[in-house]
Amino acid sequence: MPLPRLAALATAITLTLGHTAAHADDQLQAKVDRIIRPLMQEHGIAGMAVAIYARDHAHYFSYGVASKAEGVPVSRDTLFEIGSLSKTYTATLAALASAEGKLDLDAPAKRYHPALAGAPIGEATVLELGAYSADCLPLQFPDTVQTPQQVVAFFRSWQPHAKPGTQRCYSNPSLGLFGDLAARAQQQPFATLMTQGLLAKMGLEHTYLNVPASAQGLYAQGYDATNQPVRVGPGPYADEAYGIKTSASDLLHYVRLHMQPQGLPPALVQATALTQQGYFQVGAMTQGLGWERYPYPVPLDTLVDGNSPRLIREPQATTRLQPALPALPAAWYNKTGSTNGFGAYAAFVPAEQLAVVLLANRNFPNEARVRAAFGILSGL
Q1: At a CB cut-off of 8 Å and minimum separation 6, what does 71 contact?
Q2: Looking at 67, 84, 98, 174, which residue is catalytic?
Q3: Which domains are assigned to the chain?
Q4: DSSP E strand boundaries for the chain
Q5: 3-state DSSP call for residue 343?
Q6: For a designed S-S bond to 119, which of 2, 134, 156, 279 qualifies (C-beta 3.0 to 4.6 A apart)?
Q7: Is 84 a catalytic residue?
Q8: From 132, 170, 237, 333, active-site residue
Q9: pLDDT digits (tens, 9 = 90+) for 176-217
Q10: Residue 17 has pLDDT above 50, yes or no
């Protein structure tokens, strides 16, 4: 074929592909709009950021404002509190310590925290604490527990409610102690290990425990149930259990690295796999470290139930899986997160190379988050 005709054909193909991609992007935008705009109106959400990984590309969608008072529009770089989604970061930090031989997940808590020796909770393993199955610890610490000394006193006085490994009780104290033990095993402060260690190794340059002055302009204002401005405050194990603030772009990058860890240091690749293994079976849900997983494809009703208040506020019978189930590509991995003024959700399916992130500056029902994410990923 003459060169001029080859050049013309190449140009035509390029234009066709560009038109097809643009049409697909327009369709995705329309789909996300149809789901997110009514959701925001129904739940009184001022601003949302949505990030999707599909078709080997990242897609970002921004809605509303980060601050009602200032009228700052949400962008892919707006910082949101992600609440308990932070637990997956803590789990990855602990898994990395395990992969590096610095933390034994099967060791009793007292090995790394000698002050717990002689107390029943000191016999619980690091893994059991990370999977909320050491004992039926409460969802939150009592208001009277604030200092590190009071935390230790609380754990030492805690009376067992169930045999370790038989009941799952979703718990900030349980997960917080898990992160604390990982830090003690490495003889460094948790915040240092997170910010200068894990976040740096994963290239998360806009993810923080404490938002610096240079990034305060990007920090969204959260709104509580009465529409009053609010942000998360300090508390025992806040950093470990619910302290991360991040953007849609950084959170999607983090989720993608769990789905596509190639290129990370070998120990961190191993760590991402450890977080996705199955350690306990809780009904239809398999509990990993941080992440919760379901065989894919998964019915929407199963996801809604697995992220319902029942799983958060009520004890659930659980079965230890020994050996642990390997990370499963054909699975839906997810985690919700909330503070008083923010709501977040992330999900990914490695076998389909799909991921979705939802960030809002208001706490809204988990069911609505799950339905929105499921609707967005369906058919992609």
Answers
A1: 65
A2: 84
A3: 27-377 (3.40.710.10)
A4: 47-54, 57-67, 72-73, 80-81, 167-168, 222-223, 229-230, 245-246, 278-282, 285-287, 292-295, 316-317, 319-325, 331-339, 342-349, 354-360
A5: strand
A6: 156
A7: yes
A8: 170
A9: 999 999 999 999 999 999 999 999 999 999 999 999 999 999
A10: no
